[in-house]
Amino acid sequence: AAALIAEQGLPVVVTGPGAEHDLVAAVAARSPGVVSMAGAFDVPKLAALLAGAVVAVTNNSGGMHLADAVGTPVVALFAGTEDEGQYRPRSVPSAVLRVPTDCSPCRQFRCPFHLECLDVAPSVAADAALRLADNAE
């Protein structure tokens, strides 16, 4: 999704905790111009980054809630662990993406299957982000 968004001319920063440095770097390396910044932000700095973004693409995590809190439209890729109606962004334009599965909401920390609930095509996430970005301008 990062590569597809960058191809359309939006600047893309991929973040995550320092423990995911290699994963974040691998994602960013797939596309010219995508910046890897794993471990670079504490919560206030991440809030500032998100506040300046046109759109955020996150999983259902603190980043999603932080984007919502600072007024940034958000695409949230929701795992089947939770009921997205309870935790979805409420204050900003958003797209909540998840593949419906019979086991959701499972409330599991480890998926006994193959994370089918997260099998959202990158093009679907990128298209949702680009639509929200276009509407924000």
Give a written overview of the molecule.
With 137 residues, the chain is α/β, with parallel strands linked by helices. It is 38% helix and 15% strand. It has a three-stranded parallel sheet with strand order 3-4-5, with helices on both faces. A two-stranded parallel ribbon has the order 1-2. α3 crosses α4. The longest helix is centred in the last third of the chain and has 15 residues. It is globular and about 40 Å long. The two termini are 20 Å apart. The mean pLDDT is 91.
Query: H/E element string?
Result: HEHEHEHEHEH
Overall geometric form: globular
Mean pLDDT: 91
Helix content: 25-40%
Strand content: 5-15%
Radius of gyration: 15 Å
Distance between the termini: 20 Å
Low-confidence stretches: none
Structural class computed from helices and strand pairing:
alpha/beta
Number of DSSP helical runs: 6
Strand order, main sheet: write it out. 3-4-5
**Major sheet:** 3 strands, parallel
Topology, pairings included?
Layout: H1 2-7, E1 13-16, H2 21-29, E2 35-38, H3 43-51, E3 56-59, H4 62-70, E4 74-77, H5 84-87, E5 94-97, H6 122-136
Parallel strand pairs: 1-2, 3-4, 4-5
Q: Top keywords for this entry?
A:
137 residues; alpha/beta; two-stranded parallel ribbon; 6 helices; 5 strands
